[in-house]
Model the fold of this input.
Amino acid sequence: MPLGIRGSSIRPLSSMGGHAVDPWRSARRTLAVLLFGWFAAAGTAGVSYLALRWVAVPIGVGILLCLTFAVLLALLHRAAWIALLSLVPAVFILVGAVQYAPEAALEARGVRERVVIVADSAEVTGGKNHRYTLRTSDGEELDERLTYKGDAWAPEVGDRLDVVLDPEGVVPMEKADEIDPAGRLNSLIAGVVAWTLMTLLAGRRGYVRRRAGKGESLLLSL
Done:
């Protein structure tokens, strides 16, 4: 009796409402975004170290890299909300990467001085940007000015402070109680860890969304 060959019961993915997606390609995309996130954090910290005198440079570079990472994360996930969510750890990364290098330099080679504020530029200009003239306990007036932006908790004329100055004149002086390089490094690491977890989640969710055919609109996807 001749044996008949049964027809295959395997149904193509497209007939079940899904799309064929290469999992290895999704993994490579995830890895690429993850490596870019690490590069963005390390690159911002590196620029901060190279441009100790110009704090605006690492801030600008860091903002650009963080926004680029957010866009890449949205494309990986196929949803826009995760890009907005990634901006929260981006703040920790920016603060840590930008401030770690100058504060570490002040901690390593800085000179601590007890000073009193004798003048405030904001009293003349009427603005919120303060440039304080300082006098040491020996009666010597410092050439460098201590800067402070904003009126909240701003020091006043007559206040006594402990400041740390860079003897090489590269890093701007800071109040001694605000120098915390270990805290800045922890902030940077926490932001990178959060980005890493978000990237792995976005890669997995993006793969699932592409298989389900839900990657048409980033703005409407959840």
The beta strands are 111-120, 129-136, 146-149, 160-165, 174-175. The mean pLDDT is 83.
